[in-house]
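Re: [ENG-882] Designed sequences occasionally contain unexpected residues at chain ends

Forwarding the minimal case from QA. Structure tokens:
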């Protein structure tokens, strides 16, 4: 980005033919350096998807806050500005890593914008800033959703990380409740010519909006969409051949999971998957799910024999739910 304009990928990347595929949009380092020298900000999107420390940081925030968290990095040269005035459609923490940057914050022109309500100059003139300050290395800024802002460097480079928070909105909750109505034939009927929706239909929707259901749907969506953070997973799988019932095990600290007991069995929901076990494994699964400290397969409660417990924990290591400490 430079002066509010996005530099196109073709200006600083190339695709390298390879068999059986190709490496597309590979950065040309010399071109990136040239653009940076000319005042461009280097933006690393989705830092939590590429850099393990950021993945751990965002995952711990997700576990504590119960909502998706992302991280981007922005490296701006001296005397430059990457983005023009704009608002974000999610809450942001700005972590100033090195250098300094001057921030100007303006009154919102659109209160609490949704993801589809992106910034546009058509919203009007932002007027004078209500806050004007400099972030130094080590400072943190909280920027609520919808507050227009701009930032620029002065006499030195600046590196900051933005941590974006994406809690569920009331509109999200209403949409989720409406989607859950697909199992009700009355919602699947065609709209009549007069466009009237009966009070009974709205009452059926309202019945799905009690707080417990709203929270349950939000939690399920959150848990089922978390991407796995599987550092050292190859070493974990290799260690399975020597795993015994006396080896200590722990749930991965990066796993955000829910446990569901069903008629057909017990399910662990995590890392965009459901792992289902027969109901006789319930006591063992519950013990693993609640384990605050290392536990061995030998210590698991329930009717599973030693062989069954070993099969259980090996699968959960393989699926990325458990890990063998020290491996």
């Amino acid at each position: 980005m430079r002066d509010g304009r996005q530099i196109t990928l073709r200006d600083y990347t190339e695709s390298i033919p390879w068999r059986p595929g190709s490496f597309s949009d590979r950065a040309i380092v010399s071109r990136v350096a040239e653009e940076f020298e000319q005042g461009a900000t280097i933006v690393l999107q989705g830092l939590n998807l590429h850099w393990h420390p950021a993945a751990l940081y965002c995952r711990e925030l997700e576990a504590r806050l119960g909502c998706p968290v992302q991280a981007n990095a922005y490296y701006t040269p001296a005397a430059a500005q990457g983005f023009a005035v704009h608002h974000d459609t999610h809450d942001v923490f700005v972590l100033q890593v090195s250098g300094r940057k001057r921030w100007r914050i303006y009154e919102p022109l659109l209160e609490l914008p949704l993801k589809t309500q992106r910034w546009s100059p058509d919203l009007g003139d932002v007027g004078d800033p209500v806050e004007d300050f400099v972030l130094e290395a080590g400072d943190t800024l909280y920027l609520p959703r919808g507050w227009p802002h701009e930032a620029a460097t002065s006499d030195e480079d600046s590196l900051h990380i933005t941590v974006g928070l994406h809690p569920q909105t009331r509109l999200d909750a209403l949409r989720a409740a409406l989607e859950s109505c697909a199992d009700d034939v009355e919602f699947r009927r065609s709209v009549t010519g007069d466009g009237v929706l009966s009070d009974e239909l709205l009452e059926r929707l309202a019945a799905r909006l009690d707080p417990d259901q709203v929270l349950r749907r939000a939690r399920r969506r959150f848990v089922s969409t978390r991407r796995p953070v599987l550092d050292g997973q190859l070493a974990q799988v290799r260690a399975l051949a020597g795993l015994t019932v006396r080896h200590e095990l722990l749930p991965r600290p990066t796993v955000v999971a829910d446990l569901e007991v069903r008629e057909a069995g017990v399910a662990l929901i995590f890392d965009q998957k459901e792992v289902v076990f027969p109901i006789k494994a319930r006591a063992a699964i519950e013990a693993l799910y609640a384990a605050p400290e290392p536990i061995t397969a030998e210590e698991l409660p329930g009717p599973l024999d030693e062989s069954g417990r070993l099969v259980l924990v090996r699968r959960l290591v393989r699926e990325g739910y458990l890990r063998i400490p020290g491996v």
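QA comment: On inspection the terminal residues look reasonable. The mean pLDDT is 96. Proposing we downgrade this to a documentation issue.
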